[in-house]
């Protein structure tokens, strides 16, 4: 218990520090005087972020990309994993080898960009959704779930009652697969929420930027000093306050999502250990 307590403190303290640093005076944060409690409490960093219209636009874009992307990801992954879990599917091992091959080798950024461009998806949300529509790891995890938790005898009984493969998948397999659906939705949603590299490559219209890319531009390119100069005076210490506030704001939706799928999370991680 003592060891686990120490590990808990090691993991939680950086998160706690980000929270108290976001409401402390930037000069005290830079001076190392913020350790356990906020010093010179201030909400200037949050006021600056909330007052920036680009933040809210990025929030809306990211929520849209996350909702549509997660729906596409889960739908494609489940409809791909179920047939691959069936022993009567010819060539399923060869198909899985092709999927597994892509986990270690890819065409690279330039060929992928040229493909997306040739399909006319530049500056479209589909450019950040379709190229990564399937995660092979999640596909393997879903296939393993179907193999171990959807008995073959159940399908045989359904077939005897005149149930087709499509009907069995939609009305029997999916209702029994809420755990894996929740885990897949969580994994894909978090990936979409944290993603910015695809938007950085494929988007030119700043009105379509996701939140993470907007925060990146504000912090790395110094746009925060240009857009908020009247409020912050352009000093470098203020950027520290905004940096910590941006981390908190960007993390809130994901933290709010975890409690709803927490009970399925352990089962999903355990399924990933089974490769049969």
Automatic annotation (TrEMBL):
It is a multi-pass membrane protein. It comes from the Bacteria. It is found in: Cell membrane. Residues 97-270 form the ABC transmembrane type-1 domain. GO terms for cellular component: plasma membrane. InterPro entries: MetI-like (IPR000515), MetI-like_sf (IPR035906). Keywords: Cell membrane, Membrane, Transmembrane, Transmembrane helix, Transport. Its main location: membrane. The chain crosses the membrane at residues 63-82, 94-114, 126-146, 242-261. GO terms for biological process: transmembrane transport. PANTHER family: ABC TRANSPORTER PERMEASE PROTEIN MG189-RELATED-RELATED, POLYGALACTURONAN_RHAMNOGALACTURONAN TRANSPORT SYSTEM PERMEASE PROTEIN YTCP. This is Carbohydrate ABC transporter permease. The lineage of its organism: Bacteria, Bacillati, Bacillota, Bacilli, Bacillales.
């Amino acid at each position: 218990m003592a060891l686990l307590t120490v590990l808990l403190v090691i993991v939680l303290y950086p998160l706690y520090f980000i929270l108290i640093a976001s409401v402390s005076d930037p000069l005290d944060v830079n001076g190392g005087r913020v350790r356990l409690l906020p010093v010179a409490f201030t909400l200037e960093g949050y006021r600056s972020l909330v007052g920036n219209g680009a933040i809210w636009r990025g929030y809306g874009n990211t929520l849209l990309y996350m909702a549509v992307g997660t729906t596409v990801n889960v739908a494609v992954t489940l409809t791909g994993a179920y047939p691959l879990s069936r022993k009567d599917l010819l060539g399923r091992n060869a198909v899985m080898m092709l999927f597994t091959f892509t986990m270690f080798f890819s065409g690279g950024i330039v060929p992928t960009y040229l493909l997306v461009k040739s399909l006319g998806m530049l500056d479209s949300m589909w450019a950040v959704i379709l190229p990564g529509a399937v995660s092979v790891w999640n596909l393997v995890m879903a296939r393993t779930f179907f193999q171990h938790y959807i008995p073959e005898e159940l399908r045989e009984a359904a077939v005897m009652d005149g149930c087709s493969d499509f009907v069995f998948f939609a009305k029997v397999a999916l209702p029994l697969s809420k755990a894996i659906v929740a885990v897949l939705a969580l994994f894909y949603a978090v990936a979409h929420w944290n993603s910015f590299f695809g938007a950085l490559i494929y988007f030119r219209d700043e009105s379509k930027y996701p939140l993470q890319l907007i925060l990146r531009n504000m912090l790395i390119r110094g746009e925060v000093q240009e857009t908020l100069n009247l409020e912050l005076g352009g000093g470098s210490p203020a950027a520290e306050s905004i940096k910590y506030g941006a981390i908190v704001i960007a993390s809130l939706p994901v933290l709010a999502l975890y409690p709803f799928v927490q009970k399925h999370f352990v089962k999903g991680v355990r399924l990933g250990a089974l490769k049969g």
